[in-house]
Amino acid sequence: MHSSRLSPLTTLPSLNIQNPMNQTSQSKPNKTTVKLPTSLPCEDIFTNITTLLRIYKHNPSLTSCIHAKIIKLGLDTSTIITNSLLDNYAKCGQLEDAAKVFDDMPTRTVVSWTSMISGYCQKGLIDEAISLFWEMLEDMQPNEYTLAVILRASAQKGDGGLVRFLHCFTIKCGFIMDKFLQNSLVNAYAKCGMVEEAEKLLEIFTSSDVVAWTSVISGCVCSKMVERALILFFLMQEDGVLPNEVTILSILQACSAINDWRIFQWIHGLILKNEWRRNSLVVNSLVEMYSTNGYFEEGVKIFCNFCFLGDGFYLNDDTMAALLHGCGKEGFLKMGEVIHGYLIKHRFFPCTIVENSLINMYAENEMENATFQLFNTMRFKDIISWNTMIKCLVKNEQEIEALNMLSEIHTNGPRNTIFPDFVTMLSSIQACSNLASLRMGQVIHGYTARTGLESDVFIQNSLIELYAKSGKLDFAKKIFEDIKEKDLGSWNSMIAAYGIHGNGILALNTFTELKRSKIHQPNNITFLNILSACAHAGLVKEGFEIFTIMSIDYGIEPSTEHFACVVDLFGRSGRLKEAQDFIDKMPFRPGPDVWGALLGACGLFGNVEIAERAAKELSGLEPNSDIWRVALSNVYARVGKWEDSAKLRGEMRGVEKVKKEGGWSAVEVGGGLVRFGVGDVKHAESKMIYKVVHCIHEQIREGGLTEAGTN
Fold it and tell me: pLDDT for 493-507, tens place per residue?
């Protein structure tokens, strides 16, 4: 019987293998049985059994059937057969059955022990494998195959001490000259991060092959010794050893980590020169190297050459997803659509990872309809699919729709084993924060507490922002104080929270506490938040001192946003001339944020001269913007220059492309969000609302607060 002639079987044929001593002349052969003639000697029965076990070594159900027949024939005392049976169960992952066979064996050989240890390793039960190895040493000496298996287990566990012991044991037992065992030792040292020891072995083993060299190179890459990996790559070739596919894949990882254009060009040229460009795994890694390190166009070129002009090769799902991610990040919508068409043509769908990247690509390029269409047609959605959609909605200021999606996940997700993760919660908290929706934010906070997600520092930082924007500064402070390991984002969030509420002194105290902790150094966001807090609290002196120490003490060069904060700092305090002088001394050309801050301050104090200069600068920077026109019109109106104000607003209506978006606000009532604009009468109770507003206005006027409120 030859294995090449066997057709695939779903069930084992009736095995009529009989002990020759029990056979009778009346037994008739069956067409579907494997039968031995009466004259067949016992060794041939063993041969047939072991042959069947070898044929069905990856089929657990057939192995069990053969096992039953072995017991029936009384052959379970044979060490050869039980070793084969044990090996089958181990390779099938049936470790309970394998362990039972192992425990019941009357006599165990080194093969028995090795098969059982190997089975544990394949299942990832490393501690059990090592424990069994120690037990084996009490009974017999392992061979080179056993040592290779246990070295692999040591590498998986990262137990460098055990690797050293096995190295010594290998020398003691005289197995050190075994080539396979040498490679196993080198690999074990390298995977345990003991790269220097692995390199020493390369020098000792003068005939090291590509497997040994590749193990050390991979170990260097895993240990983030990427420059050393490249040096070893050159030394390997000097030693006359040519790299293989695995070597090149490791070197591509090293090059990607280095992120140097010249290195990228070198490895790219090497791949082309040595015909690895026809290897799909290598090309996939090459594309990912370029696309994940900011050289997206190069990755696209390889994709086009490989897939459109190649010999029918296709990039894998992960690489296609990386390319689509790059299209979204870099704004390459047209290329993304080309890739989308390619994916449809070559039947990549359904593929969740690629579809998720497509959704993200269209969302990043503000193609909302395409995003929803793709999402709705997905056959299999995972939590990443939902997260991408929620993030897209929040980015496009559709927070209510985003929260509705969260509700849908909570309602229908468990049926598809989809549950919100910390990314879902981050986006949802951001939606609540944008809406200042305290009630919904508290519901989400409760969910994070029940599921253990609240312990994530990013969740905690987002909650600080949520409560600060919702007017609950005490809640924000409580969360900040409860964070066990604060990161810089925690400090930044708390400083911003105090700034939102105009409490500059507490913001300064928190900033001082951050500096004293010496755990984190303030970054550019920290300075933005503290400068803004000082501006809102009128702390001009303190704010300007902080701006000064940015570059001197912390080496942070102020950006245009920092300069805008200082202008706002002076402007809110009425020091408009100082703000103007500060702008004139800026080391680079002021942007719209800077002039916008000055113009906004002029509106507070009615300084027409400086306002007109700021508006003139903004007209050159943003000729089609309506914001500066409205601001200047308000300055004119404030000082009673009604004709100039009306003239400017008339110009707005006449200028093409200048459109003012109507302002709107929202208020949370009974758990629902109500959006309204100026003069809005869409609400069902608008008459009652205006009546109440009128009453409030009358009370304010009667109380003599109208003038104070205006000033």
Answer: 999 999 999 899 999
